[in-house]
Structures are given as C-alpha cells and as structure tokens.
Amino acid sequence: MNAITASQSNIKLISDVASLRADIPALHQKIWGKPLAYLDNAASSQRPQFVIDAVSNHEKRNHANIHRGVHKLSQRATNAYEGAREKVRAFINAGNSREIIFTRGTTESINLVAHSLGLSQLKSGDEVLISWMEHHSNIVPWQLICERTGANLRTIPITDRGELDLEAFNQLLSERTKIVAIVHVSNALGTINPVKEIIDKAHSKGAMVLLDGAQAVAHMRIDVQELDCDFYAFSGHKMFAPTGIGVLYGKKVLLEDMPPYQGGGEMILTVTFKKTTYNTLPYKFEAGTPHISGAIGLGAAIDYLSRIDFNAIAKHERDLLEYATSQLSDLPGSRIIGNAHKKTGVLSFILGDIHAHDIGTILDQEGVAVRTGHHCTMPIMEFFSVPATARASFAFYNNRNDVDQFIGGLRTTLEIFS
Ligand code: 7TS
Fold first, then answer.
1. What is the mean pLDDT of residues 172-200?
2. Counting CB atoms within 10 angstroms of each CB, which of 98, 277, 408, 411 has the fewest?
3. Distance between CA atoms of 166 and 172, rounded to whole angstroms?
C-alpha cells in the first residue's frame, strides 16, 4: 500500500470502509473460541498493518536519536519525525507545523496548556469554563491550576439528553472567562458538541478556547483554522496509531507567549547558570527525547486515514449506531445514557440492575470487548445517577456482525440474571 498524504487530494477516496477490516490484524482472532467483536474503540483503537509496519521498519533500520546527530540514522529518524509533524499539520489543517507539538497524548496536551498558559496568565477572580461532560483529564488539570492561581472553575450543565445547556453557557460566559475548555465529542455519551458556536461566543468575550478532540479525530475531518480554536488536543492511540504519542495544536501567537512546561534537553537554545534561553516552537515544548517511533506511527495512521472518505466513515458509524441503538432499546430494562441529536458511534447503557462490570465480563466470554465503569467521567455518572455504564464504541472497521454478537451477548446476560 502506498502512503498518500492529505495534500495529494485528487485520488479517489475509499468509501467502502467495512472492506478495510482486512487491514486490521487484531480483529482476525478468536477470544474464548468466538470471533472478536472489538467495540472498545473509544478507549483505544486497533492498528492497521500499515501502521504496524511503519513503526517496525523504523525500529529495524532507522532508529537513532533525533535533531542531534550528523550521522545517517539520526538524519533518517529526524526526517521521519519531522515528516510526521507535517502530516499532522495537514491532517488538521493547521497553518504552520510549528503549531504542532508532540506530547504523550490528550492528557499531557491539556496539562501543558493548563500549566503553561494557566499558571502564567490566570489570576484571582478569573474564570475557567469547562462542562459537566468533560473527561477527568479536562477537569483535574484546571482544578489544580485554579487552586494555585485563585481563578474560579465554572461548569456548564448538561441536559437529560446529554447535550450541553447552551443557554446556561451563554449566562456563564463573561468578561471574567479567560479559558473555555470543552470536549469536542464526549467519550461517555457520544455527544458532538456545537464547538464552532462555542468558540465564536467565547472569542466575543475575549476568552481562549481549548478543545479536547480525543474522541473526534478518528471520526470526523478536523480543520483547526475553520474552527478557529486556540488549542486542540488529541491522542494517537484513539486514531489507529501507537500509544504514548499525542498532539497539542496551538495558535503560534499564543504558544510563543507561553513559558516552557518542562525543562531539559532540546527545549533550550543556550544554558548558563546565569540565564537559559529557550528554543523556538515547537521544540520549546518538547523537552527530552520524544516518542520517535510513536510519532512515525501517527504519521502512518494519518497516511492510512487520508485514503478514506471521512463522510463514509461517519455514515458507516452512524448506521452501526442506529442499528445497535434500536436493538438495544428493545431489550428489557435497557436505558441508554446519552441521546444527543448529534452523536458519534458511542452507546453507553445500563441493563436493569445488572452491574456494568458483570455485563462486560459476560460479553467478554462471548468475544465482545466493551468498556465498563465511569469512563473517567464521574460527573456524568453523578448527573444520570448511575454508578457506571457499559459502553460499546464503533470504528470504521466494525460491522453489523459485531453488533449482532454484542446484542446476542446482552441476551445471554439477561438470561443469566433472569
Ligand atoms: N479526553 C477524552 C474525551 C477521552 O475520551 C480520553 C480518554 C482522554 C481525554 C484522555 O486521553 P489519553 O489518551 O490522554 O488517556 N478516554 C478513554 C475512554 O473513554 N476509555 O478509556 C480512555
């Protein structure tokens, strides 16, 4: 398979996405003697052979530290790493590759902004606005920073459908709001938030906007310039790339003004005991040896995704969601948590008073992988008065057989508990 980048856009994009299942080796195995139905994509997605090969080829032939060697391997590794940065830039349509900072993932990207921007710019009386549907990684960093700066953390409530209460958002937003940090797509509810509207309103009050894109990037085309968000955070492992690599996009003018997050090698220009000067973007924020093969794997995942029609991915996942939702709704005692008008392929639910972990354990015996628990969104569980949910989440390579196996597993669960 040839690597084709997003910029080579005259090629015909693949729209028969289910046929791509053959590209994903992990899907072709049996679990407890049953075919694997992998429905835990919101936690982490599976890798195409293409991505596995890119990482493996790099590790076999081209590994060396980057930016520091004049020798051939170091040059190859540096070119591949910086090439991956350019692929990320094109993938989210950032204006400049200096705006792409490699991190360990969404969590580190948000912590970087909270610590660097938050600690240097927030003061007592300022407000940071998040929502009730944030993942803990977009709650706790802001709590830490608000505690240290005296800023106040405000929260946008959600509705019974699992949508943001936009009227409440309008009322909460004020000249005191300095940062609005919002999830683009909720991992526990599947809700796609109206982020463009939120960004425009926040900007009109002078606030900056960070979007947590962890659950968006594998399911929809992201254009950070069109969105006009100030920061966009995401993880490689939820978009068919390795773990331990992620991205923070930030507007150059903002990143340039922000102090370093961590100190060490690579992020400096000169070091003396009197004064240290910092490197230019993006290196100022990439202290130490990075996850080189991870970045290369992320670049390969982007090459892979660039061949696929994102509209076809969205249509396919919507079809699976509707198919699964209608069958799940027919099961006695089922309650779906998260019924937003605009959703990605995330189906969170409870089944009578059967504990979510029991559902997950029985589904596993049937070869079906789902996530159970609070999904690192304890405020959502509190809002819906449930201790935990079971969650099926789809990727482009899932099909209706996966859903049938999932629903069959739930019928078995109901029989066992009847
Ligand atoms: N934000 C959202 C919306 C997420 O879904 C996750 C991980 C994160 C942030 C953190 O990403 P990380 O890569 O830095 O860990 N969500 C999940 C999940 O739903 N199940 O397992 C991890």
1. 98
2. 277
3. 10
pLDDT at 268 over 60: yes
* Lookup: tokens for 47: 């890798």
Q: What does the pLDDT look like over 230-254, one tens digit per residue?
A: 999 999 999 999 999 999 999 999 9
**Side chain identity at residue 243, one-letter code:** T
Predicted local distance difference test score (pLDDT) of residue 69: 82
Average pLDDT over the chain, rounded to whole? 96
Closest ligand 1 atom to the C-alpha of 42? Answer: 19
9 band by pLDDT with thresholds 50, 70 and 90: low
pLDDT digits (tens, 9 = 90+) for 96-147: 999 999 999 999 999 999 999 999 999 999 999 999 999 999 999 999 999 9
Atom 17 in ligand 1: residue holding the nearest Cα: 43
Region 17-43+309-417: CATH code: 3.90.1150.10
Q: Of 187, 219, 222, 394, which is best to mutate to test ligand 1, by the most ligand atoms within 8 angstroms of its C-beta?
A: 187
Among 73, 376, 378, 386, the active-site one is 376
In the predicted model, is pLDDT for residue 7 greater than 90? no
The residue contributing the CA closest to ligand 1 atom 6 is 214
Question: Is 376 assigned a catalytic role?
Answer: yes
Structure confidence by residue, pLDDT tens digits, 338-379: 999 999 999 999 999 999 999 999 999 999 999 999 999 999
Residues, the chain:
418
Q: Which residues pair with 335 in a beta bridge?
A: 350
Q: Which atom of ligand 1 is nearest to the CA of 393?
A: 19
Name every protein residue with a CB atom under 6 angstroms from any ligand 1 atom: 42-43, 105-107, 135, 137, 183, 187, 212, 214-215, 235, 371, 375-376
Q: Ligand 1 pocket check: which of 44, 104, 140, 215 to mutate, most ligand atoms within 8 Å of Cβ?
A: 215
pLDDT attached to residue 6? 44
What atom of ligand 1 comes closest to residue 184's alpha carbon?
Answer: 3
DSSP three-state, residue 25: helix
* Among 294, 392, 412, residue whose Cα is nearest residue 344: 392
Read off φ and ψ for residue 158, nearest 5 degrees: -120, 165
Q: In the chain, what is the straight-line distance between the N-terminal and C-terminal CA atoms, in Å?
A: 50
The CATH architecture one would assign to domain 56-305 is 3-Layer(aba) Sandwich (3.40)
Classify residue 155 as exposed, middle or buried by CB count within 10 Å of its CB (0-12, 13-18, 19+).
middle
